[in-house]
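Translate structure to sequence.
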């Protein structure tokens, strides 16, 4: 019952065969799908191999972290979405840097945290998310398949717009492994 202002952004244009006008063929509304990663982010599959997030599809088997059992388990991807973003951050762990949107939650030793908790709190299940800061320790999958903690050495805002991807639903669990981190 409120007025809504919608801004359209033409993502691609190609010549048609019948008309010379620009036609809109698809409109997607991304109100609850932010929490994203760039296309090159590697997702850990159930066999411990990796696949870039832009290549994931429904039915792919990935790993999720069961925090109560403190172990990684297999699950299937139900759906993936892609959304352009300009609210990216680089999180430096010393041996690797992970890029994500500023509102994407990471599992820390003290629960879920993000660089922009007020944005993350809008998503179901993340109402108690805290601020992610330098010095926080994040859960990663170790080489032996067990969880390990890595300390954040620095966080930097990225000033560019990029097409990003996220797993919007898995069959079992509420997280996935992106570039080794539980997110």
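Result:
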């Amino acid at each position: 019952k409120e007025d809504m202002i919608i801004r359209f952004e033409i993502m691609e244009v190609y010549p048609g065969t019948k008309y010379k006008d620009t036609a809109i063929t698809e409109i997607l509304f991304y109100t609850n799908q932010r929490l994203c990663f760039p296309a090159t982010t590697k997702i850990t599959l159930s066999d411990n191999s990796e696949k870039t997030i832009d290549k994931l599809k429904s039915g792919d088997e990935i790993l999720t972290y069961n925090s109560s059992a403190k172990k990684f388990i297999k699950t299937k991807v139900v759906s993936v979405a892609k959304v352009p973003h300009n609210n990216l951050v680089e999180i430096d762990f010393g041996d690797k840097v992970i890029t994500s949107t500023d509102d994407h939650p990471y599992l820390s030793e003290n629960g879920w945290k993000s660089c922009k908790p007020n944005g993350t709190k809008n998503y179901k299940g993340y109402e108690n998310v805290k601020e992610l800061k330098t010095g926080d320790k994040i859960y990663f999958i170790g080489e032996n398949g067990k969880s390990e903690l890595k300390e954040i050495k620095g966080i930097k805002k990225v000033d560019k717009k990029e097409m990003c991807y996220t797993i919007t639903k898995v069959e079992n669990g509420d997280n996935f492994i992106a570039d080794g981190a539980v997110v």
